[in-house]
Amino acid sequence: MSRLTPAASICVLLASATWTGNAHAEGAKPSAPVRVADVIGGHVHPSVCVTHRGDVLAVYNKSGGGGKELLLCRSRDGGRTWSAPVVIPVIKDCSIYPGSLTTLRDGRIVLHWSCYRHEGERRWRVPQYCLSENEGKSWSPPRDLPIDDHTNYSCLRHSILELDKNRWVCPLYDRTVVLDLRSNTVRPFGDGRNHGMVPIVRTVKGTIVSGAPQANAPVPVGRPGKSVRGLRSTDGGKTWRAMNALPYFGVAGYDLTVLDDDGIVLTSIVYGVGVDGEWSYELLVSRDDGQTWSDRGAVEIYNPSRRISGRGWPRTVQLDKQTLGTLFYDLDSNQPGGPGLFFVRTPIAALSGQ
Q1: pLDDT confidence bin for 224, thresholds 50/70/90
Q2: 123, 127, 276, 313: which could form a disulfide with 145 (CB 3.0–4.6 Å)?
């Protein structure tokens, strides 16, 4: 995997933004970042999905660290232009930690988030979700995820994995569970291990790929477990094999996106070595069901030639047969327009193996 050397960490401060891999080809370059919305700071933590009609929805917290509302912006042209933000009105009496958006097979949209709670010295978070049956125009009343032993790490940041119409895998930070909608109960997923707050996806072949950096995640911190750098399961999560392929999993982690042709795109953060922080975002693809990944065809989609301010939480979706879209935020106050939420379009042809 490509990582900055100490020298490169210094050079990145001076270098102009560059495109790598096959993206040098004319017409196969990521777009310039488009500003989706202005933000203030904190846990902006955006999420993104594409509706069955092709609208792109972006949900975020304008002022994180316990914002009181989640805002939604909509694009009807593949992320080139965006609507003004609107408040998702069903979320009330909640100091919000943002979560994720997922488009279900039947076209419904699931929005997840967590509510901060406290009583005396005790702190915990309550994961909640709501559904939209009209592509994000209105939402159902919030529902609590049915767990009764909440911790301050009962939260998620990645899309759920829809096993079937009534069962969703929810990768919370402190546990990995399956929500059964019919009985409104949760149970441990697969062999019961905690994958952590990571992406978990399923390929057309039925292989489940987890972004778990360790065999069993300690929460919130603890003695490091066995390093696996990603896990694969071909039996529905009953057994797992270490991939030993994914990059360093930092605070904001990374994202996994299964393409229509069954490739898997990794959205990765390049961290500085010797100079801390996030320095750029890149995409790379696996073409063998997640068994191998190569950074030789990695495409750099954002490099502002400085440290990216905040924890940008880049999230990628497939917009159409030819194009990916990645949503992230950057809190740098000196950039034009100040802190903002941004969207980059990347031709799939820019990725190695196309």
Answers
A1: confident
A2: 127
d(CA 270, CA 20): 13
The order of strands in the sheet holding 255-258 is 255-258, 264-271, 278-286, 299-302
pLDDT in the model for residue 352: 66
Q: What's the gap between Cα 288 and its chain centre?
A: 22
pTM value surpassing 0.85: yes
The C-alpha atoms of residue 182 and residue 88 are separated, in whole angstroms, by 26
pLDDT at 23: 38
Residue 310's region, left for phi above 0, alpha for psi from -120 to 50, else beta, is left
* CATH number given to 6-350: 2.120.10.10
Residue 344 Cα distances to 31, 196, 210, 249, 324, angstroms: 6, 27, 25, 22, 8
Quick one: what percent of the chain has pLDDT higher than 70? 91
Q: Are 145 and 186 in contact (CB under 8 A)?
A: yes
8 Å CB contact between 286 and 298: no
Q: What angle do CA 234, 238, 239 make, to 5 degrees?
A: 65
Q: Which of 270, 196, 179 is nearest to 231 (CA)?
A: 196
* Geometric angle at alpha carbon 21, from 263 and 288, rounded to 5°: 25
